[in-house]
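HOLO CASE FILE
Compound: alpha-methylisocitric acid
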Amino acid sequence: MNLTYKILSAHLISGALSRGGEIGIRIDQTLTQDSTGTMAYLQFEAMDIPRVKTERSVAYIDHNTLQSGFENADDHMYLATVAKKHGVYLSKPGNGVCHQVELERFAVPGKTLLGSDSHTPTAGGLGMLAIGAGGLDVAVAMGGGAYYLPCPAVVNVRLTGKLPRGVAAKDVILELLRRLTVKGGVGKVMEYTGSGVATLSIPERATITNMGAELGATTSLFPADALARDFLRAQGRKGDFVEMLPDADATYDETVEIDLSALEPMVALPHMPDHVQTVRETGPIRADQVCIGSCTNSSYQDMMRVARILKGRTVHPDVSLVIAPGSRQVLGMLAANGALNDMIQAGARITETACGFCIGMGQSPRTGAVSLRTNNRNFFGRSGTKSAGIYLVSCETAAASALTGVLSDPRALDTDLTISMPETFLYNDNLIIPPAGPAEAEAVTVVRGPNIKPFPQAPRLAADLTGPALLKMEDNITTDHIMPSDSKLLPFRSNVPKLSEYCLTPVDPTFPARAKAAGGGFLLAGQNYGQGSSREHAALAPLYLQIRGVLAKSFARIHAANLINNGILPLTFADEADYDRFAQGDELALDGVRARIEAGEERIPVRNVTGGFTVETLLPLSERQRKMLLAGGLINMIREQG
Ligand code: MIC
Ligand code: SF4
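Model generated. Tokens follow.
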């Protein structure tokens, strides 16, 4: 067995481990962050379960930390009190980015983790099967319910050789994105094997598993070997180590070979993480801004390499360099060994250990800027400046470029970039607040600010559905298009009515008003609709605008699940060419759709009333999903079933 199937089989609750069919797995740990967490806990509360049933659940506050109004602080208070009441640990703002802290303090090899954030697979760097999902799925897992997913195919990513100096783990995942594209991993787990694995540190592995999310993969996984043991020991967690390796004769569905020695620094050009080419091919484009940090690249090792490059030098006069260390542990270590001062003296602007620039919470670049960033997504508009181009690079490339003012190959530097892993990390869990014990929990009052509004719920599925196709979209529409999240909107993650006013506005600013005027309808989309974030708001806001179905060429995994969980039909064109026969504004009808789904039919005809023709769409559902859609979403189904 490969490692993925070993962990899956040890957690299997329902279904069979054969590719494509639905399986249910037991979840050992969950994580939420604040921007998806408020909704997840509101949903958890709606389930009326007094205390989480997982081995450990952690609520992180790391996204909405700008606090430009009362909304964020109110959400923080809600999260702190709801966590305390229901048995959830709270990682306070300032403690760090969820995935970095999870890796340092909680990830355990061989266990399962479900997180309401698409980069939850970061913990796969330590051999944990860590999956990103919508908040509702995480709420169910907190309540002890299984997590259901299509049984993935497993890709063997065989690494050989060793990264040359100046070439980073980030370049490995950028190379994979170049080869496989942003939809190349859909339905698959990327499992890393080969002699090259032992040459990569745990944080380097975590960079790769983190950004595996951009492949659309279910998750990414490294074995837990001697390096994992040393890392856990240095985190004071020796007891958490379990060796997790694939069998020597493990089989895989596909194999991808990467010779680490042959790689060179890479860059993802705007506006997609798979628009990848080498730094050399891209040439010395002028940089206005360089941002270093995020859950992809903000470990101690990353930051030390940056500090080495910056030490004794000065940032180019035309560049704004921003550095956000990933966790308080990392920041504390940089402060203690003087590396922080090397960064400060070089002219870096040090920001809070939080998501910050990565999610557009501040540091929006100037009009038309070139911004080099070490995070994982460069989707259109995500930085908060629509006209800016975001280029994704490694820490080494970012730091080298901050000095020269142009995109630069870090291999040209004569700096020694070897950073050995510390014997002991500076760990301190005093910003992790344990929950109240079962006896005291009763007395804890959950505090709700005025910004927390009830979440919308779908009606029971009607016998027939009719309505206009309100918007026709291209391929690769991201959740940042569907439900944008910059510093102005992120404070409203617990206020879907307000958010819905911005739904799909990056595609068409008139969409929310038109959807309201029409009383709802349908969406038309190309390939990989809904890629990116796990944010359930990308389903909830359309639901609030009474969107009943999306017809697309294909869907991203988490978004498809979020649509079904919220009672919206994700319909795939049986013949992709039919996409061209539909126009925005066409009146559509799904005659007898309820009866068809009740009967288990997987082909749903869609009548284009305007065009006077009917096409077939596919809606392959498990029994559970069928019930869910008929009931009007997961919460309604749970209520119906008691
Ligand atoms: C992201 O990187 O897009 C986010 C913001 O972390 C999201 C979660 C969210 O939208 O709150 C994600 O990755 O799931
Ligand atoms: Fe935060 Fe960015 Fe990571 Fe998302 S990708 S968790 S916004 S740092």
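CASE NOTES: The pocket of alpha-methylisocitric acid (ligand 1) is lined by residues 35-36, 63, 117-119, 132, 359, 377, 485, 532-535 (CB under 6 Å). The mean pLDDT is 97.
CLOSED: yes
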